[in-house]
Amino acid sequence: MNLDSLSPREREVLRFVALGHTNREVAALLSISVRTAETHRANLMLKLRLTTRAELVRCALESGLLAID
User: Fold this and answer.
1) For residue 16, what is the enclosing H or E element?
2) Domain holding 16: CATH number?
3) What percent of the chain has a predicted confidence (pLDDT) above 90?
């Protein structure tokens, strides 16, 4: 899957979501509000045409955003 349309911040959010972090944890890690983290996740799903967090994880793995050990 091509992540070229994502902003650097959206890529960060995608990575943290794919690692299993909640919106609250993503917000804390990036020093943003929970609402902003939720908005980034929603925008990711729209841009990538995905409907579940599991699909976000798969997308991150397939795109090489996460390394498989």
Assistant:
1) helix 8-18
2) 1.10.10.10
3) 78
Domain-located, residue 55: yes
Q: What is the mean pLDDT of the segment spanning 35-44?
A: 95
At residue 66 the predicted structure's pLDDT band, cuts being 50, 70 and 90, is confident
The verdict on residue 3 lying in a domain is no
| Average pLDDT score, the chain | 91
Write 41-45 long-range contacts (CB < 8 A, 24+). Answer: 41/13, 41/17, 43/10, 44/6, 44/10, 44/13, 44/14, 44/17
The helix/strand/coil state of 2 is coil
Work out how many domains the chain is built from and give that number.
1
